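input
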Amino acid sequence: MKKEFVVIGLGRFGGSIVRELVKQGANVMAIDTDSERVDEYARIATQAVVADTTEEETIKSLGLWNFEHVIVAIGEDIQSSILTTLILKELGVPQITVKAQNDYHEKVLLKIGADFVVHPERDMGIRIANNMMSNSVLDYLEISGEHSIMEVKANESIAGQSLIELDVRAKYGLNIVGITRGEEIMISPNATERIQVGDVLLIIGADVDINRFVKKVIQK
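output
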């Protein structure tokens, strides 16, 4: 059975979510107050609707509480974002993800019941900054306010060491959960696995610990 989602707000962020969910085989209802945007996604989404989701009757008429996950990707209108989230929560939508404009917006969203809050512009800025600061950092994904997953390219400073010898868990509080070596991908690699130059290490942990590891070990 296909998963079913609703995306409210078809700007750049919301539109990209619609495209990716559809690409992965989900059923998606796309909603916006702008008829031109809705027309654009009518050819992509399972269903595209022009609607104002700050009206409770509108949300009820669309049956949005029947969907397992609703993404509120409304752009600059913080009031509409908050009102929509509040109504969805009161109607019992199981999972609500909301795009936040700033930290204050996030606090309000969490207080009224949003399950997940994302800061796409901030998160992308952090990712770009991390990539620019080090040639060894290939990718970065924030998984909470203080924890991330990072792809780091191994260099000569750690080549030849096994994971148990490197011991990043004890020294840095990190976990190496995967290694990519050419076409080979090792998930939960064995502790005796020796790192080679060019290996891509998938590291998870607190941001402060990841940065400490990269500066002291990878960039030295």
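quick obs: The two ends are 50 Å apart (CA to CA).
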